[in-house]
């Protein structure tokens, strides 16, 4: 029933307040256990399963999806979400996202020689019944490395494969680092190897592409080809059946699925605008909802017909302080504390303490976001530094730090001047989002004003995603601080984001110490997992000290699931086996 | 008449050219570009820069323009960065939806507005007339999205009479009868809102036209022939008042097209309007420019259509 | 040549327009009769109620805004009290009308043939082909040269004179007994006017219909009328056979009118001028002699209190007796600056 | 005997029949229009007074998380929005902003359109030709889309930018109208008379022709004004309207986008929606009354 | 003779064709010549659309002259006419057909009358006021009409105000374009009388345009009959009426209804005769393209359009 109101259940309120208290007082660890209590990771619906049935999946999105259904080419995460029903990675991973031996292929790493062996199981078939060959495993490399390839995946990591650059330049016909050992084994040679290889990094590609279908299509034409857009051949539990471009996809079960024939007849994935999703869930139109925005939680929390699954996301948001510039000539970050408005660590820390992120998390996100204390989300249990205090809301402390650092109000307008007595106006760049985002940013500005800091918006309004990163990356002088977020992926390594040469190191802070950790984490030495974890923790600690980037929020991902769905899980360590999903009734529960 | 048509088409060329220049320059001035959206910790900024260079986005605008217009003349609208496919194909798909929407809207609009306009005009100053006029004022005054949202909520969510997403259910084979029915079923609600909002103009125009016509000399002549009032209305008054409405068809359709930005956004209807908004947000230049050009072209076509209809239905223009 | 069968008799007709909730009579107590084969001209200054009288007969006034009292008897039926449907039986078939402005009196979007045919559909039982033939015949009758072509044309393709002929064709299509022509030639050039007038005369000779011809041009009246009614301020003030009226006008208004025609005057002589202006509908003097204020030199006592039409010779009626005191104003002197009509 | 001369009025100084008297009479006759006019004036005055002298914008836009979606009641007359901000205050300031934009756009497009239209209509010839081609061009371009693109292009964007952008695309309608009226007016003999009497062209345009178009200009501007009130709200709804820290009717109505708010927190959007509706209706009624005053044919019997 | 018009032509371009170019010209006025003597009235008659108004307008400068010239007091003013404040413009004035539309409905009578005074005569405000009162007295209107608006007057009164405005600058020539056709008979009489009076008093010259031959005959000493932009006949009023030469003139004259019912049957027969004659002679009276021939003298003052080959038209 969609007609429920928010305030009906005192139970929820209790939980809410409880969470606030805990987050305010204790470490995040508590919050983490708390979150386990908040949401299930898997549905526990019992009942007699029906034969077959169609699973209806809603994907919340206000625009059409792009519809590129090839792992090597897609760029939109939504395409990946859709494809997930039909594709299957070559490798399976464990709860730490490390590659295991359970998948279609196994990975053998030869650290000494910077080589890996990829071995595929026999008897695995594509959705059209053709067998998976080792050429299928090689094809993606030849696509990505091809000179006509226009995607983002031909990058430094990929160039780590020996011969990739020559192939790309057109001077070689193939990638010399790829070597077919036998019909089921591929050897790949890399320039260097790091622990990332176990997470699918360093240039390793974890998907296969059907040579028999797309092998002959020129790479330049691939992205628009029907083989990619309309009838992709896949390895997953389901196969593409019908597509309404940009709107919906219908899958049917793949009888050839290597793990066994799926129990469902098929899956329908449909794009649903954010404005209608809540009501649609209530009326039982969908079984599973992907990309559900946590701010809409209050709208669905009283529905009886669904189970809300939740898991921490591989994500953190942060407040960045510009303390330098990127030198594009020499490709290096140049930190300049003295010359930057935000150069004073006290100022930065005070700004962190002044933010009432806790209240925002509670009120706007129903605690589906929580105060972040570090730059590694707690899901990465072994790397996450739970000991860090973070910058919890403490306006008094913020004020005293500012007083101490000489940021005092000399002209009596209620706003602090800088230590030289000059007016201090801090320009914040923040990304636009939904209506809530605007309120939240206004609230943060207000928080700062409350401690006497005059923070205003760069350009006077929230900045749209694309231009935001453009400006931030270009070190726009109008930006002193910025609020960004990173999805970490399954490999939370700070490489690329905090290194001295990284353009994405937007705060432009680099130091020998930091660089040490960043390099250390991905160095060969880090094959020692414990040492690596230590480096991670030290990195988090260091950033907390210098406060050039202040973590703001971790967030939960919410997946509302209709009560008729059985065997569905979003647990990272025990993910859903798609072919196992079942339905317990013909129609969704209303 | 075909001469006028050809002339109008010739005039369209410079108009479209100027439009293309304006929209291209504007699009280039938009902050950010499609590639800045690709940013994730895994993507390599150097690769993004490389792609940008490859796509020619670092060239001076006039070179980009020359390239673009060159392709355009050859019928190549470029490639969407977000959808990674030819803009022509992409828009073609959405255009069909929007045209369907406009078409059904126009039909509904005329179905609602013409009888109301005729009634109000025929019985002017009556209670009925006053009610219709009030209705037309309200439908003019009510913001599109308020009415749209209310209808969506009421008929889509609450009563569940109509689907609330998409343009067609997945699983039907395009071209089959049930596919067509399903498509129409999907667009009835937005089309209805659209139609209701558009009725004001037609109603008011018809009404005043009919009121004026009643006092015209030729109507008096017709009445003096002793033909029944009903016939006087149908053969003289309505017919003459409806002709301009028929001729406005072209303009009405283009008007509806531009309103599609709102309607499609509200109803999540995947047409050109929605595509436009999402392209603006994702800075998909090629799509933005192509869409603006297309809308401009359709507007020109609409006015041309109106002229043609007018010259067909009005003997004063037809026979010079 | 002319018989005296009476076609139409109007008795005490009052036609009032509603202005701000009161009705003002634009036609005020008019009694008239029209005979077969007769052309009755109604003359008078602009706004005196000529058109109102004509449209009252055929019932084309907006019923919501007008009030018609009195009787309009046609074949013993009172047109004034007929419903719209009943009137439609009469309009076009028995009584038809010709309007002033040939430019706007035809539907611009309909072919000439269709417009002529329209009345035939409802008033005759002719088949389609017969109707077509009749249309051609009618066009021939009104002197249009290649009727087949014209029938297929649209009004804008015809000249003003041709259009007026078409309108006449429409009016005579069902061989009506009565034709009301409201200023049929005012919008036309003199040469064309002459042709149209001749056409009307010829038609009448053929069909024997009674014609009510409304005009303000005394020349036109002299050219074709049999009898003339002069209207002033909603009333008929004089009515007489045409030669009687032209040779011996009695009412001071009629006489002044004749004397203000430039053509009639001696070369370089001054034209006669009537003081004052025609009062507007709301300011019409409703009591006494309505013309009295415009002939100040006739003593007030000379006018009747309730002027009525007096038959001063057979068929010659004059309202009020003040005509007996009439003499031209210039005769009683006054400098030429005294035409101030304030 | 009744005197026909109108001696008694002849001393009375009166104005032409198309003047304010007629308008006044029309309003007296049409009570609805009168009420509309009075309410427009009062509401506008109230809104501007409140927005400029009473309401503290900083205070109003202060986020108060605990008051999120507070119901109408003692603390907030019309409740609070998602940020716990007073709806009533936002409604007032938003109305002020919308009205301000509408007025500014109406004035800018009005003045420009009138001047250009008069010049084109009066002189005709190549000036007219050139400008008409430009107008033809403007009419066929998809202006909503270009407005949106423009808005994303402007780097530091304020209410005034919005006004200018909307005006840029809004002047053609009135220009066309004024031009056609001026064209027919220029053919009237009093213009010819003025020419033969030695009067300068510009004097003829602005002193002779323009006053005669005043009624139609009033009508057109009023109706334009009603339309312009709607434009801002539409753009704000799409997210291309006023900057976020500026209260706006469009932003308020956009709350209805969320079905939950639509149903449960109606006070967020309904007052703004109603306000727009009533305002546009009222302006429209006034415009219609003006129109009747300007056009004798449509006058109320 | 203070003014002379030589071979005046006014052609309007007709646009059309593919590029909307000028494809043809309407020869609204196609080569007419006139002379004006002081204190006389000249009539210009013809059917609708024959170019009467265009002639008047082009003389006063409202229309562009295609060719031909206007000599005013010995000076060629063809191109100076359009200079608004020139002496020529002061001396030539116009009375319009529709007195109603010829006055700005938004201006009071005093402002309407003041317009030419302010533009042409440099008078002080007092003098201006005096002049306005004077003008009102001349046209016999009470002084208090100054404060009224045009719509408060009857047609005849408005026409008189129009005349007052036209004579405000003491013009020499007044072009009266159908000044009475919109008026009722009795009002028409007032205006005509009045125009005659001021003509006598101030020695005005009139170019009197009308399609009503009766009015022209009453007003003018000299008449020109126009057809399709050209003169078919021109001469003293008497000559035209008593001795019409051109078939077109005859037809026109025969069409004028006489204000007397006696003999109307005869007149009708006569009309029909003339008409058949006209149809028959038509080709002889006009050249192949239907254009009117050049004028040839019949007497010293009487000219008629005739083919150079045919001496005697009838
Ligand atoms: N529909 C109407 N409503 C109000 N008054 C009207 C209407 N029609 C005519 N009148 C008035 O009635 C009077 C008579 O009008 P009518 O048209 O009969 O005059 P007319 O003699 O035909 O004049 P004209 O020669 O100008 O045609 C006039 O004063 C006129 O203003
Ligand atoms: N501005 C113009 N452009 C094109 N043609 C014109 C223009 N003005 C007049 N004409 C044409 O010139 C011819 C003469 O027109 P004009 O007005 O001089 O005739 P007129 O004799 O005054 O007629 P009327 O008696 O109807 O006033 C007509 O055929 C008319 O259509
Ligand atoms: Mg009349
Ligand atoms: Mg003329
Ligand atoms: Ni009397």
TrEMBL record, chain B:
UniProt entry tagged with the keyword RNA-binding: no
UniProt topology in membrane: Multi-pass membrane protein
Family named by the database record: Belongs to the binding-protein-dependent transport system permease family.
Residue ranges of every copy of the ABC transmembrane type-1 domain listed in the record: 95-306
GO biological process, one term: transmembrane transport
Main location class: membrane
Protein name as catalogued: Peptide/nickel transport system permease protein
UniProt organism field: Ureibacillus acetophenoni
GO cellular component: plasma membrane
Compartments, record wording: Cell membrane
Domain of life: Bacteria
Keywords: Cell membrane, Membrane, Transmembrane, Transmembrane helix, Transport
From TrEMBL, chain C:
One GO BP annotation of this record: peptide transport
Keyword ATP-binding in annotation: yes
Classification via NCBIfam families: oligo_HPY (TIGR01727)
Entry's localization field: Cell membrane
Name listed for the protein in its UniProt record: Peptide/nickel transport system ATP-binding protein
Main location: membrane
Family of this protein: Belongs to the ABC transporter superfamily.
Domain of life, per lineage: Bacteria
Every ABC transporter domain range: 8-258
Pfam families: ABC_tran, oligo_HPY
Keywords of the record: ATP-binding, Cell membrane, Membrane, Nucleotide-binding, Transport
SMART domains referenced in this protein's UniProt entry, alphabetically: AAA
Matches recorded under InterPro entries: AAA+_ATPase, ABC_Ni/Peptide_Import, ABC_transporter-like_ATP-bd, ABC_transporter-like_CS, Oligopep_ABC_C, P-loop_NTPase
GO cellular component: plasma membrane
Keyword Transcription: no
A single MF term (Gene Ontology): ATP binding
UniProt membrane topology term: Peripheral membrane protein
TrEMBL record, chain D:
Transmembrane segments: 32-55, 101-123, 135-154, 160-178, 266-287
Swiss-Prot/TrEMBL keywords: Cell membrane, Membrane, Transmembrane, Transmembrane helix, Transport
Location(s), subcellular: Cell membrane
One GO BP: transmembrane transport
Cellular-component GO terms for this entry: plasma membrane
Annotated ranges, domain ABC transmembrane type-1: 95-287
Membrane topology: Multi-pass membrane protein
Pfam family, one: BPD_transp_1
Family: Belongs to the binding-protein-dependent transport system permease family.
The name this protein goes by in its record: Peptide/nickel transport system permease protein
Phylogenetic placement of the source organism: Bacteria, Bacillati, Bacillota, Bacilli, Bacillales
UniProtKB/TrEMBL annotation, chain E:
PROSITE patterns found in the cross-reference section: ABC_TRANSPORTER_1, ABC_TRANSPORTER_2
InterPro entries reported in the protein's UniProt record: AAA+_ATPase, ABC_transp_ATP-bind, ABC_transporter-like_ATP-bd, ABC_transporter-like_CS, Oligopep_ABC_C, P-loop_NTPase
GO biological process terms on file: peptide transport; transmembrane transport
Residues annotated as domain ABC transporter: 3-253
Keywords in alphabetical order: ATP-binding, Nucleotide-binding, Transport
Name of a matching Pfam family: ABC_tran
GO terms for MF: ATP binding; ATP hydrolysis activity
Signal peptide extent: none
Record keyword Iron-sulfur present: no
Transmembrane residue ranges: none
PANTHER family linked to this entry: ABC TRANSPORTER, ATP-BINDING PROTEIN, TRANSPORT ATP-BINDING PROTEIN
Sequence similarity: Belongs to the ABC transporter superfamily.
Protein name, UniProt field: Peptide/nickel transport system ATP-binding protein
Species annotation: Ureibacillus acetophenoni
